[in-house]
Amino acid sequence: MLFQSMQGISIASAVTVILLIWVGTLRNPLKAAYLFIKELLTSRKFLLLFCIMVGLLLANKYELQIEEKMNYHKDFTPWVFSLEGHFVQHLQNFFHSGYITPVLVFFYVVVFQSLLVASLGVYVSDQNKVFVLATCFAIIINYTVAIPFYLFFPVNEVWSYPPSGAQFFMLEVFPNFEQEYRPLSGLNNCFPSLHTSISVTMMVLGLRSGNRRFGLITTVSAVIIVFSIFYLGIHWLTDMIAGTILGLIASNAGIALAKLSLRSKDGVMLREQGKMFG
C-alpha cells in the first residue's frame, strides 16, 4: 500500500514539486519560490490570473456540492459504453501487474498536481513571463470548459459501470481512495478527462517554452498519466480524446493570450514614453 491519507499525498506532492523544479531548471527551488512570490507582489496581471485560476480550482471542488443540489439526473455512461465497449477492460487485462500499479497511482495522484505547481516555478525561475501567464490562462480555460460538462453531461468512471468489466486497481495501493480522495473528484466527472487535458496542456507548454529538459519531463509525465487513466479503470477512451482536444486548444490559446497580454502592456509603455519625449 503506497498511500493511506491525503496528508501523505500532500507531503509526496511537495517533495515532487521541489524535485521537478530542481531537475527542470538545475537551480535552487527556493529561488523559484522567492521569484514566484515576488512576481505575485509586483505584477497585478499575474496576481489576478493566479487568483482566478485558484478560484476555478476551488469551484471544481465545490462542483460536487452544486451537483447534489441540482434536480438533474441524466446519465450518459450507457451511451459512451455503446461507443467503445470493453476497450478499458481489454487494456487492463493485458497490462495489469503489481509492479506497474504503484507507479501509475503515483503519477495519477501525485505527479499530476505537482506538474501544475512546478510549471509555474520553472517558468518563473526561467524568467519566462509568457509561459507563466500562459500556464494560468490555459488552466483557466481547461476548468471553465470542463465544469459545465461535469454538471450537465455526467459520465461515470469505467470501473463503476458493471457492464464495462473494468476493475478499480487504484485500491491496490490506495485503499482509502474513496474516503480520502473522492471528495475532490466526483464519480461522474469523467467527460472530458481533466487528467488528460491538464497533462497535455503542461506537455505542450513545456515543449514550446524553450526549456528542453522540462519539455521532456512534461512529455513523459503526460504519456504515463494518460495511460494510467485507462489502466486504473477510471476514464473512457472518449474522455481521453475530448481531454486531449481540450488540452491542445487550452495550451495554444493560453500562449496566444499571454503574448497578447504582454504585447498590450509593452504598447502602453511605449505610448507613455512617447508622450514623455514627444
UniProtKB/TrEMBL annotation:
SUPFAM superfamilies, sorted: Acid phosphatase/Vanadium-dependent haloperoxidase
- Residue span(s) of domain Inositolphosphotransferase Aur1/Ipt1: 87-250
Q: Which UniProt keywords apply?
A: Membrane, Transmembrane, Transmembrane helix
Statement: the UniProt record of this protein carries the keyword Transmembrane? yes
Which Gene3D superfamilies is this protein grouped with? Answer: Phosphatidic acid phosphatase type 2/haloperoxidase (1.20.144.10)
Entry-linked Pfam families: PAP2_3
Q: What is the lineage of its organism?
A: Bacteria, Bacillati, Bacillota, Bacilli, Bacillales
Where is the chain membrane-spanning? 6-25, 46-62, 99-123, 130-153, 186-207, 214-234, 240-262
Protein name (database record): Inositolphosphotransferase Aur1/Ipt1 domain-containing protein
Q: Which organism is it from?
A: Paenibacillus albilobatus
Which cellular component terms (GO) are annotated to the entry? membrane
InterPro entries in the record: Aur1/Ipt1, PAP2/HPO_sf
